[in-house]
Structures are given as C-alpha cells and as structure tokens.
Automatic annotation (TrEMBL):
UniProt domain DUF3298: residue ranges: 190-275
Protein name: RsiV family protein
UniProt keyword annotations, A-Z: Signal
PROSITE patterns assigned: PROKAR_LIPOPROTEIN (PS51257)
Tagged with keyword Signal: yes
Residues making up the signal peptide according to the UniProt record: 1-22
Length: 283
C-alpha cells in the first residue's frame, strides 16, 4: 500500500512539474508588443511648383507600440494616452501609424498659409529672389523615444525643434511615465510623496548647482542666491517640474528653456540616483 502511495505521489509530482514547465514555455512564447517608429523626412517649397522659393524642412520620428494581437487592448490604451498627453491633444483618435504623416501635413499647411502672402508681397514689390530674407525658410524636427524605465514603467520623451523665422529657433521637450500594467500616465502626485516635496526640491537644487558649476567650469556656485546672480531661478524657488522620468538609473527632472533660466542658458536635465530619492517615492 505504501509503495502504491509513493508511486502515485511521484506521478502527480511529475504531472505538476510538466504543467508548470508548459505554462512557463507558453508564457515565454506569448507575443509581446513591439516598439515601432514612423519616420517622415521631407522638404517642401513655399510655392509647391517653384523650387527656387523658400523651403520648409520637416523631420518627424514618432514612436508607438504595435499591439501583439487584436486582443492587446493595453498597448492600444498606452498609444491613446501618449497621443492625448502630447502635442496639446491635437492627434487624439488618429491611428498611431498615421500621427507623423498628419503632423507633417499640418506643418506644411500652416507654413504655406502663414508665409506665402508675405513672400509674394516681397516679390511683387520688386525684391530679387536672391535677397529674400532667410526667415522664410522654416524647419521642424521632432524626435520621440519610447523605452523601458524603472520596473513596469514606459518612459516616453519627445523633443521638438522649430525654426520659424523668429529671433532664434526654439527647442522644447515633453516627458511621460506610463504604467505598463494599467496604461495610466503617472503624474508627480502619483510618483512622489506629498510630504516629501521640500526634500525633493532640496535634492533638485543641489543637482542644479552641480550642473551649473560643471557648465561654468567653476565651484563658486553654492547657494540659490549664487544661481540668481547669474539669472537662474529669478522668479521662483526650486519646484518639481511637470517633466520627470522614472528611468532605470534614477529620477530625472527637465526644465525647458525659459522655465528657470534665460534662453541662452538652455534647458536643464537633472538626474538624482535612486539611493538618494528612493525614500521619497510612492510605491
């Protein structure tokens, strides 16, 4: 009787092991969503049939998830959240693979609508085409990136460069953290403990001081007053910006041009290692 019991126990152990192994194999073989890039690279002319007229260079690289299957509603949700939170919500409801094309079409339409009449007036008034001001030449460049961040979080960044005839071109970025399990875009309130805001701002201030010293090749910047003496943080105390990333190596914070400093200072990307900020994060 005991021998029969042992044989049955052994049989069921092997059976359970086989089921577990098969489950693991199926899990490994389960198709995953793929990161896909849609690229537009073109030059259009202000007067479509006149190649000697001013031009607009457009380069767009938009990234999104290609669902693993028709049942992969999570990837579709994540794509929808990306589109809703970028570009002021202009492309909500557009198929992800068509976003870059629609952006390019909008830029071209805007370029020809806003600039053509001014250009034609200059030509009509006798200005030689060789003397046409350079401000009629536009450029748009959009670079997006989607990658795995910390734990089950997608990091999405998009940087937009625009040269539209002003005193100087402008560059600005937008960062998103997306929960890969729920598809939700995480806000600062989701990521950081409310009672830790002052501590986090102290870490940001120290990182900013270190960054400014590195850029200036000095060690004389030590306080917020030192920063203000060179035009940084003139209108505010340190704060947690809207743009942050829960990346693999630490929490990064982005201040675009003009946010905390003059245009000439550029943007500031500050990263605080997890061993310094971990205690202030919501789990």
């Amino acid at each position: 009787m005991r021998k029969t019991y042992l044989l049955l126990s052994t049989f069921f152990c092997f059976l359970a092991s086989g089921i577990l192994m098969q489950s693991c194999i199926e899990q490994k073989q389960k198709p995953q969503a793929e990161i896909t890039s849609s690229v537009i690279d073109t030059t259009v002319y202000l007067k479509s049939d006149v190649k000697s007229s001013p031009s607009c260079k457009i380069h767009i690289e938009y990234m999104y998830l290609t669902p693993a299957s028709a049942e992969d509603s999570l990837s579709m949700l994540i794509n929808s959240e990306i589109q809703k939170n970028l570009f002021e919500g202009k492309y909500i409801g557009v198929a992800p693979e068509s976003v870059s094309t629609q952006m390019a079409d909008n830029y071209i339409r805007s370029y020809r609508t806003d600039v053509l009449k001014l250009y034609e007036a200059d030509v009509y008034n006798g200005m030689d085409e060789q003397d046409i001001p350079g401000w009629y030449n536009y450029e748009y460049d959009i670079q997006a990136n989607l990658e795995n961040g910390r734990d089950s979080i997608w990091n999405y960044t998009v940087t937009t460069f625009e040269s539209t005839g002003g005193a100087h071109p402008n560059t600005y970025s937008k960062w998103l953290n997306i929960d890969a399990v729920s598809g939700k875009v995480l806000t600062a309130e989701d990521a950081f403990k409310k009672e830790a805001e002052k501590k986090i701002c102290d870490l940001i201030l120290q990182a900013l001081i270190e960054e400014v010293n590195t850029r200036m090749k000095t060690d004389t910047i030590r306080t917020i007053d030192n920063l203000r003496s060179i035009g940084i943080l003139l209108e505010s105390d340190p704060y947690i910006p809207e743009n942050f990333l829960l990346s693999k190596d630490g929490v990064s914070f982005l201040y675009n041009r003009y946010e905390i400093a003059p245009y000439a200072s550029g943007d500031f990307k500050l990263t605080i290692p997890y061993n310094e900020i971990e205690t202030y994060l919501n789990k």
